[in-house]
Every structure is written in C-alpha cells, then in structure tokens.
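dude i think i finally got it to work??
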Amino acid sequence: MGWVACWFIPAILQVVRKHLCLRHDLRGFDGGPSACSRKGCVSLSSCSEAVSMSKVLPAADTLPTVGKKLLKGRRYGLIAHGASITSRGKLILEFLEDAGIEPPQVIFTPEHGLFGEYAYMEPVPSDEKGWRGVPIISLYGSSFESLAPPQRTLSNLDCLVFDLQDIGARYYTYLATMAISMEACARAGVQFVVLDRPNPIGLSDIEGNIPKPYLRSFVSYLDVPNRHGLTAGEVARFFAYKRGLDLDLLVVECAGLVRPMQLPDTSLPFCPPSPNINDFECALLYPGLCLLEGTNLSEGRGTTTPFKVFGAPFIEDPFAFCARLNEFGLEGVAFKPLFFVPKYDKWAGKRCGGVQAVVLDRRKIKPLLVGLCIVWTAMHIYREGFQWRREPYEFEERWLACDLLFGDETIKTLIEMATSPFEVYEYMNAQSKSFVEESRDFFIYPDSV
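look at this
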C-alpha cells in the first residue's frame, strides 16, 4: 500500500471512537400483523396446531399444512442438509414423506454435504442415486461455477425450496449458497421459497463492516456485516432488493420468534449444521474465531472444541498469552490457558500452546471483538511466528484469506498499526451504520411478542 497506507491508516485511527457497539434500532417497526402480511411472507402462526407444540417453530413444521398447498402438483427442488429438521428433530426429507408430500425432483447439497460428512473446502460429489432414488446435486465442487444450481436442472422445476441452518455470520457459507441460488432462479424464472429458521446467535446485535464489492467471494458474497443479526428469510429479502433481482421470492416464516431470542431461548434442539460447529457456543464464537482461518493460528480444527480453542506451536507460554487477552476485560468471556494437539488441519500432530475462550454471558459477549483481540495480540506478541494465511482460500487466489474474511484489504494493515484492537473494531462497526437503517425494512420478526 506504500505511502497511501502511511497516511490513510493513521487518519482512520484518529477518528474512530472507543468501544462503539451497534444494535438494531427497532423503534417504529410494527411486529404485529404487518410482519406476517408483508408481500412474500407466509406466517406459521396461522397454524394453531403447530404453535402449541413448541415456543418457537421453524418453517419446516408447516409442511403438513402450508407446504402441502405450496408443493402439491409442482415440480420442486430442495436445498437441504442434516440440520434441516423440524422442532421434533425429524429430518425434512422424512417429514415430507410423513406429510404425504411427493419427494423433490432433485436435492441440492451445500458445502459439507447432505449429512455434514465432508470437511471445509473439501469438494462434495454429486450422487445420481441420491436419497431413495432422488438425485443429489452438489453445490460445492472444485470451482466457483459449481456453487450455482445448473440452469438445465432448474429449467425442469417450478420452484426451489431452501432449508439450511445458518449461524449468523457472513462467512458461514450457507447464505452465500442461498444468494447464488436465488440469482440462478431469477435467471431461470423459477420461484424461490425460503423455509426460515432462527438465527441461533440472535437478531438484536450486529458487528462488523460491509465487504467491498471487488472483494466479493464465497465468504463475502453478501452485503451484510460479519455478524448480521438476520434470519435466512430476512437476508433473502434484503439480498433480492440490493441486487435488484426479478425473482418470485416467498419466505415461510418461523412461529413465535422475536429478535432478542438466541437458540437457548427457543426450546429448539441444536443440530450441528457443519462438522466443526458442534454446539451453540461454537456458533456464538464463530463470527470472531473464524477470522483465525486467515492466519497461521489454529482455530481448533482437529480437536473436540473447534472455534473455542486456538493457538500454535510458537506460543510457548500460553499463560502469558492468556493473561494479555484477559487484560482487555472483554464482557461475557474469559480466557483459559492450555496446550492441545490437532489431529488434522493446521499444525496437525504438533503440540500447540493456546487458549480456550470460555463464554460467561452469551448476551454480553461480542464475538467479533473477541476474534480481533486474539489476532491483534498474537500479531504483536509473536511477530516472528504469526503470519497471514497465504494458501488459496474458497476458490480465490488473488487475495489473501484475511482480506476475503474481512471484506476489506486495509483491515490487516489497521491491525498491524493500531495501538489496540478496539480501534479496528470501531472502524469496522462504523462502516455498517447504513446497514442498520437499511435492513430494518426487511425485518420479519418483532422485537417483542
């Protein structure tokens, strides 16, 4: 970046304010009937039998009622995975059969495959025999082009149904799969139906910046912050608007969901949506700990606690590293020193000094800030060992993985030059102020009952 960075980065650091935290301002949003009557939304609350079953219900629970009317006599495809379950833990493919609905013409699977059997960035094969004779087409192959449903397949469908469990982070790739599929359906003139699910880490808090258009990739495909505070259905509506899609979009909403709810508030079971998100706390920490994928620090892959532990062999004294992190006094989290040996991925078979992030208060923790504090501290303490990841990342070779994850190539320089990670956090949050205002028009769920 040369002389531009020398002038521009310090200028940024002078104008950011300390400890800025953005929250959705829900004033003026009527979460009553209008939230259900908005064009392109179907309310689950009309299904009285279903509502009595659970506090919150995913849209998949509508299949015996709304789903039957929507899919009867239609040729449809289904984007699903192992976490596409009902409130009672029934896999959607089995639930369709139980509801007396004809099976889909084709099943599309995202990264990690139908049952989460493939590692991250591992190509997922298609399967002509598929699920009980229904062919399975992979939406995660060996190239960026493989991420979209083939037009020749869409030409034989009336609608495409999406039911994947997101975890509320821009770089968690399932909503990028949704967005790319929406674009493909718009080109093919095929209706796109979202069976909505709760965002497990809640809808009240956002953190982060909006990616720069020229850094668009599979982990920065959406114009949303790192922690976006939306459901899949809300993201679909926002994305269709931002991209000006000529698309017949229908969102079947959840029942009983309000914005402050996190998964533990819903009474719904946690079903791991991917191999390394094995519980709620993994999902909660992911918007911050995923940034470590852009470095040579292990993010805990190859251990039983991915996205909770992190470290590297060059961290010889994890107690000192841990003490520095605890000095930040971050709300809702504490750091505990440890050693671990990853069985695969970064530093496989090598003893790593590291730290475990212990969630103390799920409502107060700011996971993106946690991740920035980890990266900033590791970079400034271990200057000889810390490195940005250089290998190709998610089909992209032109940019570093950290640039794609940040969505802004200047942030790594900010981290290098900032006197504290809070300065970087303030810079990132300040960029998403417009998103707070703009996204409100696409909310489906109210702030309270």
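The domain at 279-409 is CATH 3.90.1150.140 (Aspartate Aminotransferase, domain 1).
im so relieved honestly
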